[in-house]
Amino acid sequence: MSNGKTDQSAGSRLRLSLRQLEVFVATARAGSTRAAAERVSRSQSAASATLAELEAVLGVQLFDRVGRRLLLNENGHALLGRAAALLDEAGDLQALFSGEHAAPLRLAASFTIGEYLLPDLVAAWTRRHPASPVRLQIANSAEVVDAVARFEVDLGFIEGALTHPELRLRGWRSDELVIVAAPDHPLAGAPAGLRQLRQAEWVLRERGSGTRDAADRWLLEHLGEIRVAFELGSSEAIKRLVARGVGLGCLSRHAVAGALAQGELVELRTRLPAAERRLAIVTHRDKHLGRAARAFLAHCTEDTGPA
């Protein structure tokens, strides 16, 4: 039968380990030990035991158990940033002696940036750093911010002015929204008036995307209302639909540059003021940026185009 002294002695023999932190971070990101076990290549029972060891070492619970889900509590939130930073630093130490980056560089980008700006930057980076693999997740801006906030990626690239108390936004490149139409669209000739724009049908990005947020602010401020016929999750799909004369599109100039040059789309002339915006790079305030992330950040800002 155990007594308090024996329990205390057993607890004192427990030590914090990188394996425990790895399982904890994986569980925080996945929401269950079953999903976390797959990420760290362990059995579910081993992952659960490792997580229990960590909570015993710290003397606190890190998750609230809600059904089968494990949700970070206040203690877990306090630990997550530092745990992720320690794991990144451990990877840097391993890389110091192996001559290679121990883990892939994890990026998340909005669709416009991920599809039209980052590919060239990633290709140039890979040529210069062949031993540094890159994993690029493309999603809308709100999902990118969430990925950075949850320490799932090292760097995020977004289009909007989204804010988050735990994140830092760094201005990156300039962008401009443009209204596009098929070459034979009725409004493709003379400058379109405000009434014509209100009465036209529009093909826009889905809500939650940086492009949609910027388009709503710009168009609704000057038009009051618009008729949204289609909401799509891809700029490419919007361009194809608009090119077939279905409606007007409002997209980043980066996204439509090729279609405009090839004559598949035309930029509509209007009396609206220019819709300029800043693209941004997002990092977590509590995250240690490893060597690869710092180098890639410098790589992206070497030639950022118009300030």
TrEMBL record:
<keyword id="KW-0805">Transcription regulation</keyword>
<comment type="similarity">
    <text>Belongs to the LysR transcriptional regulatory family.</text>
</comment>
<dbReference type="InterPro" id="IPR036388">
    <property type="entry name" value="WH-like_DNA-bd_sf"/>
</dbReference>
<dbReference type="Pfam" id="PF00126">
    <property type="entry name" value="HTH_1"/>
</dbReference>
<protein>
    <submittedName>
        <fullName>LysR family transcriptional regulator YeiE</fullName>
    </submittedName>
</protein>
<dbReference type="InterPro" id="IPR036390">
    <property type="entry name" value="WH_DNA-bd_sf"/>
</dbReference>
<dbReference type="GO" id="GO:0000976">
    <property type="term" value="F:transcription cis-regulatory region binding"/>
</dbReference>
<feature type="domain" description="HTH lysR-type">
    <location>
        <begin position="16"/>
        <end position="73"/>
    </location>
</feature>
<keyword id="KW-0804">Transcription</keyword>
<dbReference type="GO" id="GO:0003700">
    <property type="term" value="F:DNA-binding transcription factor activity"/>
</dbReference>
<keyword id="KW-0238">DNA-binding</keyword>
<dbReference type="InterPro" id="IPR005119">
    <property type="entry name" value="LysR_subst-bd"/>
</dbReference>
<dbReference type="InterPro" id="IPR000847">
    <property type="entry name" value="LysR_HTH_N"/>
</dbReference>
<dbReference type="Pfam" id="PF03466">
    <property type="entry name" value="LysR_substrate"/>
</dbReference>
